Amino acid sequence: MSKAKCIMVQGTMSGVGKSLLCAALCRIFAQDGYRVAPFKSQNMALNSFVTRDGAEMGRAQVVQAQAAGVEPDVRMNPILLKPSSDVGSQVIVNGKARGQMPAAAYFKMKRSLIPDILEAYNSLAAENDIIVIEGAGSPAEINLKADDIVNMGLAKMVDAPVLLAGDIDRGGVFAQLYGTVELLEADERARIRGLIINKFRGDVEILRPGLAMLEEKTHLPVLGVVPYLRVEIEDEDSLSDRLDTKAAVKPLDIAILRLPHVSNFTDFIPLEQHPLLGVRYVQRTRQLGAPDLVILPGTKNTMDDLRWLRESGLEAAVLRLSAAGTPVLGVCGGYQMLGEQLCDPAGEESGTPCTLRGLGLLPTTTVFGTEKHLTQTAACVTTEPFAGAKLTGYEIHAGRTEVRGSAFCILADGTPEGCVQDGVFGTYLHGLFDTGELTEKLTAFLCKRKGIDPAGAELIPMEQYRQQQFDLLADGVRAALDMPAIYAAMGMQKWRQHMTPQHHLPADIERTSISIITRELDELGLTPPPETAAVVKRVIHTTADFDYAKNLRFTPGAVEAAVKALHAGAFIVTDTNMALAGITKPGLKKLNGEAICYMADPAVAEAAKQAGTTRAVAAMHRAAREHPGAILAIGNAPTALLTIAEEMEAGLRPALVIGVPVGFVNVVESKEVLFAACERYGVPAIAAMGRKGGSNVAAAICNALIYSAAEMLDPSARGWNG
Q: Which residue, among 109, 91, 110, 92, has the nearest Cα to 101 in the 3D structure?
């Protein structure tokens, strides 16, 4: 029998928000201390991902795995359908392509895939505590119910309780939910444990009469009304609102061609997040205008989309822009289109053997074959103006490209990859902007071309940003849903009975959490020394990540020195307003202390501009001048740590340095440089070695020190009830 409990989210239709609700539940269960895995038996999507072992899976389950804090695994999505036309798809089973199939042929054989589905599910269930299952479309598609393997058919196979979600933002949510329930068979209705109304804007009290009537008619409880949450989390395919963005509203204008079969547009979310980069998707020549950069994205059908590009007039428009000096970037299928010729001798790409002329902007020829190239890799860009940018990404393509020119980058194994010529750049690497290094070099390049000062626009690392968004999503959904009822629906009555009575007051929540952390640290053999225990436990309490018991590093006497400094009224200087906001104000008041962040100060922005550096660097120089004996809490900017190390060489002696930036670019190295400098000059330091950290961790460390100094470690000392 399967070990894991499970919960399934189905919807009244596509686009009701099932994927994000599942991501939220994955995050919530992980925050509650459970081992969680997402699962979707059959996903239809053009946005896909390559796992570490070279298997292809749907992007939605990758996002849900990230929310759960686990490595994406192809077992989470054993069947992936990648539409190549209105009536056919590429069928991928257990991460490997089985070829193109018309819809009718696939429907005839899909039940033969049930053993693959159950094998994947059962193996995940044996390794986890909870499986969060996502349905597809609607369970009330009565023409498809007989051979269903993704909605109620799957729910029966794995004995899953079901939550049924409807989208109120589209209108008609009561009819959606009632009609769906009525179209189900009696045994299917019995599986539904509750209804969820999603994407609500306004006062929920207005809904109360409708909710009561809905419960009366369906005989099912409404377990929550989830507000329209403005979170930046990757979504799926053409249902994404971001594809409808037509106008750039930031200083730099990036135009992405919205190809008919566009895929992996999630590659460009890091660009959207940048404060200077306006990203829009265009389908017509009159929309293109005069952008600062044109991007040709990936596509599931390069040959057909190349024909569309030509017929729409966008090819000619792109060629004119390129001739006038506008940079052009092609990713995967877009890279293939930029070449001189594309050959599909067996019709693998387009269904019919053919050869097409490319845009001719790169000296390449692509030949499509039957074997798909699937791999994760790292690379370093070798071409100016992006030389030195380190990338991580993955490749998904059946074409093999012959390059007769300069490479875009060098892969980790030394292989040249991509092609560059006269301001035109092409690469097969998806996820190329995730590290942030290429994003920053691209921004600097475009700013220079346009005469814009990039100072002060330092980007939050993508991983830190993604984790922040997951937490915002989980907070919003947790507040809206009856989580004890959902736990009970999974048969986890013990949780409900045990947890609810002691978790209705904040003080009780914190005490119990710290008790759990203490016990689990002991069980793991990671019990921290008494002098650092408060800091370690506070960070774990904030992150639910026990790795910090190993990663947090202290110079001798660091905590004692920090407490002494706080008793003396030491300033705390942070590198982000987020960290500043998270530091306890009552605790500081009790100690007559103060915390400050200079990042938004106009004088710091001007100093950064004059020096040609970042605000983080300028802010640390100012902190060194104005508060030389401060506690410096750095949760975001590696450059801040390096600046502090330089200032220490010049004589600065802070009361304490907290070095906990998060990310992949210069993060590990900056912490090591900082900690070594602190040891050399006798400066107390607390650092989270490795990649992990963030503004929330910096604030948690500050709070642990403040609570220790102010004798407020127990919440009752902070005036909390319970």
A: 91
Q: Please, are residues 249 and 278 in contact by the beta-carbon 8 Å criterion?
A: yes
**Which residues are 208's β-sheet partners?**
none
Q: Tokens at residue 267, please?
A: 């590659």
DSSP secondary structure letter of residue 134? E
- For the segment 677-681, the average pLDDT, to the nearest whole number, is 95
Are the C-beta atoms of residues 80 and 57 closer than 8 Å to each other? yes
The secondary structure element, H or E, covering residue 587 is: helix 585-590
Pairing of strands 252-257, 293-296: parallel
pLDDT of residue 246: 52
Tell which CATH architecture fits domain 5-227. 3-Layer(aba) Sandwich (3.40)
Rounded to whole angstroms, how far apart are CA atoms 149 and 214? 28
CA distance 515 to 548: 17
Report the pLDDT value the prediction gives residue 18, as an integer from 0 to 100.
Answer: 94
Domain ranges of the chain: 5-227, 252-451, 504-718
Q: Which fold has domain 252-451?
A: Rossmann fold (3.40.50)
Asked about 354 being catalytic, the answer comes back as no
Q: Which amino acid is at 250?
A: K
Verify whether residue 678 is a known catalytic residue: no
Annotated catalytic residue within 274, 397, 430, 621: 430
Query: For residue 604, what are the contacts with CB-CB under 8 A and spacing of at least 6?
Result: 598, 615, 618, 619, 622
Catalytic entry in 332, 343, 597, 678: 332
pTM above 0.90, yes or no: no
Q: What tokens were used for 306?
A: 């190349």
Q: Which CATH number fits domain 504-718: 3.40.50.10230, 3.40.50.10490, 3.40.50.1100, 3.30.70.980?
A: 3.40.50.10230
pLDDT digits (tens, 9 = 90+) for 578-591: 888 889 888 898 99
User: Three-class SS of residue 157?
Assistant: helix
Residue keyed to tokens 């059908």: 301
Give yes or no for a contact between 424 and 322, defined as CB atoms under 8 angstroms apart.
yes
* pLDDT tens track for 382-440: 999 999 999 999 999 889 999 999 999 999 999 999 999 999 999 999 999 988 899 99
**What is the distance between the alpha carbons of residues 542 and 188, in angstroms, rounded to a whole number?**
40
SS3 385: coil
Confidence class for position 506, pLDDT limits 50, 70, 90: low
Q: Which residue has the tokens 């409404």?
A: 222
Beta-bridged to residue 344, according to DSSP, are 354
Please report where in the chains the tokens 């963030």 appear, as a residue: 694
- Which residues, 6+ apart, have CB-to-CB distance to 501 below 8 Å? none
Task: Tell me if 5-227 shares its fold with 252-451.
Answer: yes
Nearest to 77, CA basis, from 15, 191, 154, 25: 154
Q: How far lies 673's CA from each of 573, 623, 647, 659, in Å? A: 20, 19, 13, 10
